[in-house]
């Protein structure tokens, strides 16, 4: 299922993420693409809250640490590919171990590791700037039960 | 465990993110050796220039780094009294390399194992030269991955008062450097460019998150710099290519002033709240001279004046001296881990 949503503020981006997170059942992989400052981390704050993996304030940017882990109704692995230099580095993170029926794996800068994700039926979210606080969010290949 | 009057030596191991490091520290303060893979010839032997994120890089380096630390310290296993390792927070697959090595050495040598929180260890760097800490103390840890404020009762008792809710301060420095086309790592290049710029040239907003908050938010500041350079809807062309060196220096200086302003004001707020007599500063961004100067002014202008303790520059970024040093205090307190020790992503 493909949907396009406009967010007017960071708070609304978190809210949209929360609606996605609430519908998740586990076993999903979500790749998020979009330039600096387009709201990727904010969307994931909402997804984590909706999946009851962590409060929005618990979710911060894993750019340096590469992977943040949050545990709750579903386990959420929050990966940031920004600093990765190769697909091999991504695979060595233990990506396969993060994917199990009760987990959700969310990847920021997913375009950098697209070839590693291609074999999975992952949900794609594109984010773009459309004004000072306005963001266009494109959701593609969402499972049917994630009706937005 | 009998040391027969000789100093207690702790071997420290650090692998929480990019760096593979080992150190031997005597009595918690005397640095006998400090080896950080990326800073030595080992790095040329074993890996590229850009720090590698993969655990394989740690696996390849851990043995040579530990043996070099032992060799430089001039100690053998008999003179090591405990093995301390950072087991949280960090990248699990990186942490596990240090934890596994430390467990193996502890078992092989029959020496106690000590678990260390990497963030608490950063504070230890600021306390290295200090015999007695005047309490209460507030501690600011600021690096690429973390931005936290602690109420510090002793090296072993730290209570989190605030932290970043999005980007760490060091991450903002790196991303702004990237926007401005400055070299990686961004911290030193922003500081260098900013030295020639006007910190008041652009009034970037200071995100304070409400009057009582001790949390930090730097993602809005990063986006403000981005919009300044590329227009509010990102549809404009990237002006950085056509900016003069002076203009880039002004953006860097104005960004740096805004980020440091928030760090200093929040630290002052935290210090006021607990009546801190001492302020501690550690982590990679603690190497920034403007941050050091501004915190010193804040401490000097307090009534009564507060003491500022800053980590020596070589121990601001990730290292194992801080792990071994904190390990000594846990050793003295009898706080040991066992071989079931596991790495933990959050801490």
Summarize this entry quickly.
The complex is a heterodimer of chains A (148) and B (347). With 148 residues, chain A is an alpha/beta fold. In chain A, 26% of the residues lie in helices and 26% in strands.
What's the structural blueprint in terms of helices and strands?
The complex is a heterodimer of chains A (148) and B (347).
Chain A: E1 3-7, H1 10-23, E2 29-33, H2 40-50, E3 67-70, E4 75-80, H3 87-92, H4 95-98, E5 103-108, H5 114-117, E6 123-129, E7 135-140
Parallel strand pairs in A: 2-5, 2-6, 4-5
Antiparallel strand pairs in A: 1-7, 3-4, 6-7
Chain B: E1 9-14, E2 21-26, E3 30-36, H1 41-46, H2 55-73, E4 82-88, H3 92-109, E5 113-117, H4 118-127, E6 137-142, E7 147-154, E8 157-163, H5 169-179, H6 186-194, H7 219-230, H8 245-274, E9 278-282, H9 289-301, E10 307-310, H10 321-332
Helix pairs in contact in B: 2-3, 4-10, 5-6, 5-7, 5-8, 6-8, 8-9
């Amino acid at each position: 299922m493909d949907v396009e949503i406009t967010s007017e503020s960071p708070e609304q981006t978190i809210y949209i993420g929360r609606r996605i997170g609430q519908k998740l059942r586990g076993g999903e992989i979500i790749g998020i693409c979009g330039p600096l400052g387009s709201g990727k981390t904010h969307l994931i704050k909402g997804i984590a809250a909706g999946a009851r993996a962590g409060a929005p304030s618990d979710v911060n940017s894993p750019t340096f640490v590469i992977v943040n882990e949050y545990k709750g109704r579903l386990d959420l692995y929050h990966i940031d590919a920004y600093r990765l230099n190769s697909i091999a580095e991504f695979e060595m993170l233990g990506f396969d171990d993060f994917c199990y029926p009760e987990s959700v794996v969310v990847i920021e800068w997913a375009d950098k590791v697209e070839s590693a994700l291609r074999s999975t039926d992952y949900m794609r979210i594109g984010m773009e700037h459309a004004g000072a606080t306005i963001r266009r969010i494109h959701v593609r290949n969402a499972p049917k039960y994630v009706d937005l | 465990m009998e040391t027969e009057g000789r100093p207690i030596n702790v071997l420290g191991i650090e692998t929480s993110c990019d760096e593979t490091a080992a150190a031997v520290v005597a009595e918690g303060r005397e640095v006998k050796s400090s080896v950080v893979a990326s800073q030595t010839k080992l790095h040329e032997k074993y890996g590229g220039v850009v720090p590698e994120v993969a655990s394989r890089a740690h696996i390849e380096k851990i043995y040579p780094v530990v043996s070099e630390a032992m060799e430089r310290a001039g100690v053998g296993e008999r003179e090591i009294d405990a093995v301390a390792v950072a087991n949280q927070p960090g990248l699990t697959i990186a942490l596990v390399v240090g934890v596994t090595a430390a467990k193996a050495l502890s078992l092989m040598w029959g020496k106690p194992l000590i678990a260390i929180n990497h963030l608490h260890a950063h504070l230890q760097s600021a306390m290295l030269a200090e015999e007695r800490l005047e309490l209460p103390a507030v501690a600011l840890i600021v690096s690429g991955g973390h931005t936290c404020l602690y109420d510090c009762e002793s090296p072993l008792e730290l209570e989190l008062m605030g932290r970043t809710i999005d980007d760490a301060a060091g991450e903002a420095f790196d991303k702004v450097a990237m926007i401005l086309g400055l070299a990686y790592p961004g911290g030193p290049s922003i500081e260098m460019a900013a030295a020639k710029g006007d910190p008041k040239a652009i009034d970037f907003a200071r995100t304070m998150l409400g009057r009582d908050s001790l949390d930090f938010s730097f993602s809005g500041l990063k986006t403000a710099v981005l919009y300044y350079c590329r227009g509010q809807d990102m549809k404009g062309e990237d002006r950085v290519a056509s900016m003069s060196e002076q203009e880039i220096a002004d953006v860097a200086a104005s960004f740096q002033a805004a980020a440091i302003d928030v760090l200093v004001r929040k630290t002052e707020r935290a210090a006021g709240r607990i009546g801190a007599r001492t302020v501690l500063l550690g982590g990679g961004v603690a190497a920034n001279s403007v941050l050091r100067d501004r915190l010193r002014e804040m401490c000097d202008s307090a009534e009564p004046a507060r003491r500022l303790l800053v980590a020596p520059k070589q121990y601001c970024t990730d290292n194992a001296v801080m792990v071994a040093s904190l390990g000594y205090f846990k050793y003295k307190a009898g706080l040991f881990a066992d071989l079931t020790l596991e790495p933990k992503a959050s801490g």
